[in-house]
Amino acid sequence: MAVSPFKFLQEVRSETAKVTWPTRRETTITTIMVFVMVAVASIFFFAADQIIRVLITFLLGIH
Predict the structure, then answer these.
(1) Cα 33 to chain center, whole Å?
(2) What would you give as a GO molecular function for this chain, any one (predicted)?
(3) 57 Cβ contact partners less than 8 Å away, ≥ 6 residues apart
């Protein structure tokens, strides 16, 4: 069941027309949210790493 390239491109165009593209505002807000979440995750993992480091150092008696 081969589809001609012309028919394929027609179907691609019709499917692309159905896509709801985000507005500039939505894209900006989503981007800011991603950066905020990256910052929060960075702080969390930094804090967790420091706590684990202190615990391991204490348990092993390393000065």
Answers:
(1) 10
(2) protein transmembrane transporter activity
(3) 63
Average pLDDT by stretches of 10, the chain with 63 residues: 86 93 96 98 98 95 79
Q: By the 8 A CB rule, do 57 and 49 touch?
A: no
User: Is residue 9 within 8 Å of residue 17, measured between CB atoms?
Assistant: no
Domain chopping of the chain, boundaries: 28-62
Q: Is 21 in a helix, a strand, or coil?
A: coil
Phi, psi of 29 (to 5 degrees): -60, -45
CA distance 52 to 59: 10
Our CA angle for 33, 37, 23, nearest 5°, is 15
Give me the numbers of helices (H) and strands (E) for the chain, helices first please. Answer: 2, 0
